[in-house]
Amino acid sequence: MTKLVEINVQDAVGYLKLNRPEKLNALSWELVQEVMDALDDLSADQTVKVIVLSGEGKAFSAGGDISSMRELADAAEVAEWIEYVSGLPKKIMDLNKYVIAAVHGYAAGAGFSIALAADFIVADEDAKFALSFSNIGLIPDLGLIKLLTERVSPPIAKEWISSAKTLSAEEARSHGLINKISTGSVVEAAAEFADFIVKGPPISNKYVKYLVNHTGDLHKETAFMQENMIQAMLLQTKDHQEGVAAFFGKRIPQFNGN
What we know:
Layout: E1 5-10, E2 13-18, H1 29-44, E3 50-55, H2 66-70, H3 75-85, H4 87-94, E4 98-103, E5 106-108, H5 110-117, E6 120-124, E7 128-130, H6 144-149, H7 154-162, E8 166-168, H8 169-174, E9 180-182, H9 186-193, H10 195-198, H11 202-214, H12 220-234, H13 238-249
Helix pairs in contact: 1-4, 4-5, 11-12
């Protein structure tokens, strides 16, 4: 039986590939479970400093699996399904390591949500980001409305959602949604983009992700205090000592996450 995800670890990069190409990597219950389990495994792997999430076949992900949703018997099952699948973007955002979405083909609907939940997006030059919910009388889900309006203004978000907008990679980059456009292999481009993460300090990267992802949740004074407390802790780490020694020694620091 073909695995729904493929995992590979190389040079401190954990590669996680959605492997349901015949369905354009649409999110079934089983696929979501396997992806979340794989994320847990890569998070626990101390050799992995960053995770690259990609899709096999013609698309990153076409969104939710409509055929699976049609099998749901009633409103209670629908609600359970949506709540369960919403756990995937939450897990990506709560993970203690950076995640790079390497997007090719379509990131449509829930697939767009997954990409936005990642810390960075590297997209193929022909990639498309689709908000087609209004075409079938629905609204975005899996956190897409919040994630989108954290990046673009509310009027733009409303226009895109209500008009079922499809964004090109260049248009997405012009609005600050993606970090890099690739003209070759998008996974290779994501690995190259990840170089600064691989060479960087894992502990401080973990806290940068946490603080940035939660900055909107905190009052100003709480945010200041939280930064100060984390900084006081980081000042005691071996990675900080190594960074200082490398600075004065005029060499590249070798961070090990301690």
